[in-house]
Amino acid sequence: MKLSSVAWLCLLPLPCLLPLAGHAQPTSFTDAWQQVLKVSDKLQAQSQEVNRAKGEEEAGESLNLPSLEIHGSYTHLDQPIEFDLKELNSVISIPPSLGGIIAGIPPLPLSEQDIFNASLQAMWPIYTGGQITAAQGIHAAMVAEKQQELQLATRDLFTLLVDRYYAVDVTLALVNTQTDLVGSLTKHVDHALALEREGQIAKVERLNAQVALDNAKVNLGSARRQYEMAVIALSRMLQQSDVGTESPLFVLPHAPSLGQLTQVTLSQHPALKLLEAKEAQANGLISLEKGKYHPTVFLFGNYTLYEEDTLLSSITPNWMVGVGVNIPLLSRDGRSGKVEAAKSALLQARYTKAQTRQDLSLLLDQSYRQLLQAEEEVTALDTSLELATENLRLREIAFNQGLSTSIDRVDAELKLSAVKTQQLAARYRYVQAYARLMAISGQLDEFIGRTIALTQVQETNNAR
Predict the structure, then answer these.
(1) Pick from 419, 447, 424: which is nearest to 252 by CA?
(2) Which of 26, 40, 41, 260 is the S-S candidate for 246 at Cβ 3.0 to 4.6 Å?
(3) DSSP assignment, residue 25?
(4) Whole-angstrom Cα distance, residue 191 to residue 395?
(5) For residue 462, with 0-12 CB atoms within 10 Å meaning exposed, 13-18 middle and 19 or more buried, which class applies?
(6) Do the bridges between strand 296-307 and strand 319-326 make them parallel or antiparallel, or are there none, so unpaired?
(7) For residue range 216-226, what is the model confidence (pLDDT) as tens digits?
């Protein structure tokens, strides 16, 4: 297996290169995750979505309160309002003795031609057919929806961090493996040159060793660049200049229970809760539109703050209160169509939820089997690594004694390097699969706890 076969480990194909710095401060996975939670612009943007929804929910609470406003007006009449006593004859019968007197009385002015008025008006809805309650329920469901979207974004970032964090460890191990291979092949080439000068091996065998060394140097350069790009990807995610890793790759002694993972996932996954919030919104819309068929009852009041000193104002009361009712008969807002649209939205959310449950179950099954596959590969490659190491030792002895060719010696070296690379890739896939399982089931703390325990074990072993 050549190094190019693990090029998928590269996460950002950036042209910038970083030196293989050994002085970068090691960062545990736990610290890296806390840093991501603090600096992630994606999470910050999603958090603001939650805050916006909460603000709208708080605004919806005021729908239960009365409204109070100052109303002012200026009105220009084509002529002042007047009252002519002579017009009383058209309403009541006036004795002739009074008719002459009234006829001599000029019209009484009731108002000016320009009218200024200011009043304090209040309105308090006391029954709206459930429209206010439905609107408030929709706002609460929108908050729940945004909160679940935040949870989904957090889990996506978690799996991305796992990919980038452990990619640094994997690519650095690949660099070390290729470095060892170059060193070993360099010694072999020097030995082959000495044997060629003594006539113990043919030139073609020495050339074969030289070609293998040149290829190993090329692969080493490729491994360095993969490591540099992995460091860039992690540093950009953490928004730090120098990053290093200290949490090692791991394989659990026992795989988690698929049944338990499925039960936890299908009971509390954010995608399912998000769709439940969608259902609540659709139900709220149905109630809201149906409420428009009901009458609206409200209390109202008016208090005059300012009016001009006229006869009309003197006979008008300063305040009034009452109860009003508004009964919708015909409307052009398409209430029936909106009810049907809301019912369709409800059915859509329910069908989507059922499909999402199937998709989550399938994703769990796939990730779990990928975990088992990677675990089996790691276990099987332990034996292959032992075999490749012993084969290289025997080939080295045989070559030194002239019982084996340089081709056999180089082939054994390359096989050992390939087994190391395969096992490294299998461990990386194992951690990725385990991280996906924990992210899907919402057990991020379980994964973090594993990394903390393994890091402590590694530090204890290093101290010895």
Answers:
(1) 447
(2) 26
(3) P
(4) 14
(5) exposed
(6) antiparallel
(7) 999 999 999 99
